[in-house]
From TrEMBL, chains A, B:
One of its GO terms (molecular function) is acyltransferase activity, transferring groups other than amino-acyl groups. CDD domains: E_set_Esterase_like_N (cd11294). SUPFAM superfamilies: alpha/beta-Hydrolases (SSF53474), E set domains (SSF81296). Keywords: Signal. Residues 1-21 form the signal peptide. This is Esterase. It comes from Phocaeicola salanitronis (strain DSM 18170 / JCM 13657 / CCUG 60908 / BL78). InterPro entries: AB_hydrolase_fold (IPR029058), Esterase-like (IPR000801), Ig-like_fold (IPR013783), Ig_E-set (IPR014756), Mycobacterial_A85_antigen (IPR050583).
Amino acid sequence: MKKILLLSVMLLVGVMTYAQQALWGGAPVVSPEIHDDNTVTFRLKAPKAVKVQVTGDFLPTQKITTPFGEFDGPGVADLKEGKDGVWEYTTPEPLAPELYSYSFIVDDLKMMDPANVYMIRDVATVTNVFLIGGGRADLYKVNDVPHGTVSRIWYNSPTLKKERRLTVYTPAGYETSGKRYPVFYLLHGMGGDEEAWIALGRTSQILDNLIAQGKAEPMIVVMTNGNASQEAAPGESQDGFKAPSMNLPQTMEGSFETAFPDVVKFIDKTYRTKTNKRNRAIAGLSMGGYHSLHISKQYPDMFNYVGLFSAAIMPDKKVQSPIYDDFDQKLKTQFAKKPALYWIGIGKTDFLYQANTEYRKLLDERGYKYTYYESEGGHIWRNWRIYLTEFAPLLFK
Amino acid sequence: MKKILLLSVMLLVGVMTYAQQALWGGAPVVSPEIHDDNTVTFRLKAPKAVKVQVTGDFLPTQKITTPFGEFDGPGVADLKEGKDGVWEYTTPEPLAPELYSYSFIVDDLKMMDPANVYMIRDVATVTNVFLIGGGRADLYKVNDVPHGTVSRIWYNSPTLKKERRLTVYTPAGYETSGKRYPVFYLLHGMGGDEEAWIALGRTSQILDNLIAQGKAEPMIVVMTNGNASQEAAPGESQDGFKAPSMNLPQTMEGSFETAFPDVVKFIDKTYRTKTNKRNRAIAGLSMGGYHSLHISKQYPDMFNYVGLFSAAIMPDKKVQSPIYDDFDQKLKTQFAKKPALYWIGIGKTDFLYQANTEYRKLLDERGYKYTYYESEGGHIWRNWRIYLTEFAPLLFK
C-alpha cells in the first residue's frame, strides 16, 4: 500500500494546471477586472498583435448604416499595449449595474477573451459576459435564496409531428410541496431558441429572486422553441453541431401558433399545474411577442395574462395562415373576455417602436385596456430582462 | 392596420444577419467542414495574421515535459493562407468516429473558431468541439429516440451546511410512468463540476441511446459536484462570474465522501427511486473514481455497483479524515457483502496506470472480485465516454 500512497493529489492538480497554462494558452492575466468603483479593466496578452480593441454593449452605441436603415450598434474602444505584451483598457466611468456582453477584436479578428470562461450564445454569435451588481441587476445574480429547478424536457407535438425540447423552470419546493402552480409561457425572439431566456434572459435567477422577495407568485415558467422547423436549440437536436442558420422557414407563418396547444396539453399532463385560464400567462420578446399576440387571440380562453416585449405586431403580407385571418374579430373576442393583464413594453429607440405605437392606437380606439411600459434603448436583452422583472410580479395575483 | 402590415418579417431577419456579419465579425467561412470521407477542414479568415495553427485531440499527441514528468499533450498543425486571407488545414487522413476538441492559435494567441458556436468548458479551459459519427460515437449523438429529461436541481446538505446543485438525468417517460427507477451516481474529476458529465461526458445522449437500444435499463443518473467547498459549477453559484480556480481545498480530503448520504437521502425523497442497495450504482472518473472507491467502502450497504474510471486510489499522506481510516477492514466488509459489480477501467498510458495496477494486485491477493477493462490512451474524456458506454449496460440487470 505504501507505493500507492505515493501517488499524490498534487500530481493531478499539477498536471492539469500545467497543461492548461503551458499547452492550451491559459489565462495569465485577469480580465475583466471589476474594480470597487465599478470601472472595469479588460486585458489581453497578445505580444504580436498590432491593434487590440474591445467591443460590447457597455460602450456608448455608435450608428451603423445598413440596407434597412440606421441603427444603434455597440461601440468599440482601443486597448493600449503595456509590459510583456499585455494590452489593457479601463472604462473611463463606472458602469451601471447590468449584465454586459463583449468581445475582443485583435487585428480585425473578433475573438473571445481567453481569461473569461463565461460566454453566452445569442443566435449564431457567442460573446463573453460579465455582471455589475446593484439595483435591478441584483435580480440577475445567483443569491442566497431558495433555487428553482431548470429542466430540459422533450414533448411530442402531434401537430408538428416532432419531438421538441422545452426548458422548464419549476419554483423552489415544487418537487415535494404537492401543490399545483400557475404557468407562465415565455417566448424568445427570431433566431433564438429554448435556451435564450435562461442564458441571456436570466429567467431562473430573476424568478428565484422575485419569488424569494415575495414580489412574484411561485410559478412554473415554460420556455418553448418558437421555430417550428427545429426540434431543439442548435447542438441539442439530430442536426448535431451544424452551424446555426438564419434561414428560419417556420417562425412567423402560423405553424408555431397553430401547434401551441400541444405544449399546454403536455405541460398540464406532466407538471402539477393549475389548468385554467386564470392561471396561465404568455409573453415573449420580438417574434415571441408576435407569437404571444397571435396565440392569445387565437385561443381566447387559454391566457389571462399577455405580455408583448418589443413585439413584432403583424405578419408579412405574403404570409397565409388561418391564425392571421379575422384579426379584428378575434381581438374583439379576446378583449370581450377581459384579460387580467395585456402588457406592452417597448424601448424608445426600438425599430419596432412605431409599429407598437400604431398598435396601441388601435387598442385605444377600440377601448381595449392594456398596460404600457416605455423604456430607454432599443431592441436589446437589457430591456427584455427589465420587462421580465416588471411583468412577472403582476401575474396570478 | 395597413401601415402596421408594412413592418416586414424581413426587417427582423435582415438587421440581425447584417449586425452579426458586419459588426460582430461574423462567420464568412465554414469551419470545421467534415467531408464525406471524414477528413476535416479547418478555416479561419485572418488576413493580418502571420501564423495560424490548430491544436486539438484529433491530432497525433506530442510529448510535453512538465515538472511532474513527461506526458502526452495534443498536437499542433499549421494552417496555410489562401485567397482573401482565409487560412486552411485539412487532416491528411480521415478521423475516427469521436467527439473532438480543438482551438486555433493565431500568432501564438489561442482563440476559439469564430465559425463554430459549439464550445465545451472543461475546468477553466474552453474549446470548440465537433463530432465524427459512426461506431461507438453514434451513442454520443442526439438520435431519433425517446429523450430523457436533464434537470439542474438544488439540495440542502446539512453536513456541508450549504445549498448545492446537482444535474439529474431522468429517463424518457419518467414524468408520467408512475414507476420507480434505480439510481446511478456519476462523479466527475478534479476541477470538474456537476456539468462535466453532461457536457464532455455526453451522458444524456449515451443513456438515451443505450436505453432505446435495450442495452441499458431505464435509470436515473445523478451528477454531483465533488468539490465540497462549491455550491455549484462556475457561473452558477453566488460566486457569480468569478474566474474558476484550481485552488480546490475540499476535493480529496474526506468532506465530499462524508456528506454523500445527504445526496442519496435527497434523491430518494425527491424522485421515484428504488431505495435500496440493489438498485444503486456509483462510478466516477479520476478524482470521482477515488470518491466512488472511498464512498462505496465507507457505506457498504449503499451501492451494489461500483465503477472506477481512471481512478486515483489513495489519499495524500498528509490528509486526515475518518473516511480513510481502517482501509483494509472497510474494504473487507465491502467485499464480504459481495457487490454485484466492482469495475475498474484504465488507459494504458494513463499516469494513474501504475496505481491502478497495484490496487488490482491488492484486490487479487485478497480474492476480491472485480471486472477489469483496459483501453488505449491516457487520462482523457475519450476514455471516460467509452467507460460509461461499457459500464452502464452492466447495471441493474
